[in-house]
Design goal:
By secondary structure, this protein is mostly beta strands. It is built from three helices and 23 strands. Strands 1-3-4-11-6-9-12 form a seven-stranded mixed beta sheet, with no helix packed on it. Strands 2-20-17-22-15-14-13 form a seven-stranded antiparallel beta sheet. A five-stranded antiparallel beta sheet has the order 19-18-21-16-23.
Length: about 280
């Protein structure tokens, strides 16, 4: 079985205040994603949210259950899955139906889909399927979301170095889900700040997966309470787990893209508690 996983337990804001750099990275950074020929998961105790990747090379990869962890016969017995491809073109087969995903296209897989298989069209340029999963109470249909189906928001400005396109892919105005939401934000050339003003939402967690970060470049991801901020430097194809008590924003040494994924109590995308830059400490 080509699957690897680790478990991250929840950390409170009082504990995180005393963490040094390595402790912060160990608790909140997912730095083993996109391993060739393998499915990899981080199981987080924030909303039981799972962050993962599948990179099929010469052979297909099957989304199998993790028996010791999930205690289910198959992976989606009680879960929904969101997929966004950030590599070469590939295919996802769900219970005998095949969906081809080009780069930056998405697929929602509903609860109860027993067999899911990942393949790459070209092993020399494999698909890189970024995966999010959350517990599900209802079985919604599997649906592909291409670039034309996304709801696109043009936000920010060149003057504030945060001109960006927010591609809402898995949100309730585009596809029905239980609690999972995902999208892809790309910063324009010359812009480096994401998610300004910074925000938190106590009703759900969020995970940022950074990609298209050039070699020798990095993103400084800012987290923590608004008056007790901390930072983590993130490289290409790494993700940061953001607890409900934490803000999330960041700045790169060049422009980049990131995928945001979240789950929790509601599906209101704009349910955010925002903080101006002048409010942060």
């Amino acid at each position: 079985m080509n699957i690897e996983y680790e478990v991250r337990y929840a950390v409170g804001q009082n504990e995180a205040k005393n963490y040094d750099t390595e402790q912060l990275r160990d608790a909140f950074l997912a730095d083993k994603l996109m391993q060739a020929g393998k499915i990899y998961w981080v199981y987080s105790h924030y909303e039981r949210f799972m962050v993962g990747s599948a990179v099929p090379k010469d052979a297909p990869l099957v989304l199998e259950t993790i028996a010791d962890l999930l205690k289910t016969e198959y992976f989606t017995a009680r879960r929904e899955v969101g997929i966004i491809n950030v590599g070469g073109t590939g295919k996802v087969e769900v219970d005998g139906v095949t969906y081809e995903l080009a780069r930056e296209e998405a697929l929602y897989i509903g609860k109860g889909s027993e067999k899911v298989t990942f393949t790459s069209n070209d092993s020399s340029n494999p698909a890189k399927f970024y995966l999010n999963s959350a517990p599900a109470h209802h079985a919604y249909p599997t649906k592909k979301i291409g670039k034309k189906e996304a709801n696109v928001l043009h936000m920010g400005s060149q003057a504030t170095c945060n001109e960006r396109d927010i591609n809402q892919l898995l949100i309730n105005s585009v596809v029905e889900t239980c609690q999972l939401q995902m999208g892809l934000t790309r910063l324009n050339q010359g812009s480096v700040w994401n998610t300004m003003p910074a925000h938190q939402h106590d009703r759900r967690n969020e995970v940022y997966f950074y990609f298209d970060v050039e070699p020798q470049q990095a993103v400084c991801h800012i987290m923590g309470e608004p008056k007790q901020t901390r930072h983590i430097f993130v490289s290409n194809e790494q993700a940061v787990l953001s607890p409900p008590w934490s803000i999330h924003c960041g700045a790169g040494t060049s422009n980049y893209a990131f995928i945001w994924g979240m789950a929790g109590e509601n599906l209101d995308y704009d349910d955010m508690d925002k903080f101006l830059a002048s409010d942060l400490r």
